[in-house]
């Protein structure tokens, strides 16, 4: 779906060039058409190709050009929302299935890397969950520990402090056998493995229409058609469903820094605290040894997409947080942001689309665990498509309604509804003259709202500010130089070209 997901450069983008594929120019037929070339799409295509299915993958940007290149690539079975919360929402059995599925995803990634000889810095390591500052004596860590054990995670232990010099920590819970990798090197390897098995991959190919049925049809620009027995929509957030699914998840923007630290000065592990929103940390070492330092990657400072435009402030807070806990930081060398789709009940939506086409499948709601949820999608969707039972079908069913999540559901949908008030407010500035170079703002022109971007040379680009999904007013994001929709997370580049669903068309030209 994504052409480019913003203007910042992640560590992964700076250190791996994923090879280009060609644009689809002819119509073709396959067993399965996968829309989206991120971790969920390629994992699904790979698993299906291994089972002898013919697959075609299409993406309108480069492979991994959406949120996969903006992850921090923690591979973990420590569920983002915490096991206490997952157990409350899904019961003990659901929490155990969730734990097993993420554990299986890490194992599957490790096996694929071995089988396909993918060089992507995969490492097994421990994970540490810390209490909030001042909350060290509380029971929250203990509760997480017990809930994780009830969910079947073994080798989970409480420690008085992390065995890491320099990290000022109180008590923590250690989780064994977590992992990390380089996400774009992994995708490059998956891409080659799919092609070796006869899979076909096309980039720069925008999907304009998806039609389930026997067979299903995927129409692309400028006019090719893919006919397939099954269609998988793995576009971060689905472009096929207009409303239902988008009321059950909410888009959040998260910020990441990469800090240079002396090689070996911080023990390699995954780290999380228990603040809300929480912080997450890992290390990256260049396997070639060319860099004489490690990069400490820290993320957090999340906010609802399109509802804040203060990236500089958030980066500064993140840097201060990291420097206080890791005083060996020498210099910040990367800053980037990404988007997380937060399902109201903490687990991804993977399975049959909520519409009435039985042969259209979706994967969405990464919940900050996109690498493992994307891999679970590969395994689960393959089972569903080849007609095999899966123990995870019900847990991840996109049509599920989780009664215990109704409060969150109501809050998120009130928040979305409140965004329509932007239709009647004044513009952010009175005229384009007030917009600085390489910046944007929404202005009011009569009854219309206009998204105006001023380029570096002073050139003006105007588009309707009305999101082409369900009509909310987009907001300028100065960090990524994008127009972001505060309702369901659609994103458009500075000239209005669609980059992220659920919108599937560009902001409209101004016609008056
Ligand atoms: Fe739904 Fe914009 S993403 S209205």
Low-confidence parts? none
Give the % helix: 10-25%
- Largest sheet entry: 9 strands, mixed
Distinct ligands, ions and cofactors found in the model: FE2/S2 (inorganic) cluster
Please, could you describe this protein's structure?
The protein is α+β, with helices and mostly antiparallel strands and 512 residues long. Strands 3, 4, 5, 6, 11, 12, 13, 14 and 15 form a nine-stranded mixed beta sheet that branches. It is 23% helix and 28% strand. The longest helix is centred in the N-terminal third of the chain and has 33 residues. Bound molecules: FE2/S2 (inorganic) cluster. The site of FE2/S2 (inorganic) cluster (FES) has 12 residues, from loops.
Put the structure in a nutshell.
The chain has 512 residues and is α+β, with helices and mostly antiparallel strands. Helices cover 23% and strands 28% of the residues.
Features:
alpha+beta, eight-stranded mixed sheet, globular, binds FE2/S2 (inorganic) cluster, 8 helices, 512 residues
Task: Provide the fold topology.
Elements: H1 11-15, E1 28-35, H2 39-50, E2 55-58, E3 74-75, H3 83-115, E4 123-130, H4 140-150, E5 156-159, E6 172-180, H5 183-196, E7 200-202, E8 207-211, E9 216-220, E10 225-233, E11 249-262, E12 270-272, E13 280-284, E14 293-304, H6 311-325, E15 331-343, E16 349-352, E17 360-364, H7 370-386, H8 406-418, E18 439-445, E19 448-454, E20 460-464, E21 475-477, E22 482-484, E23 491-493, E24 498-500
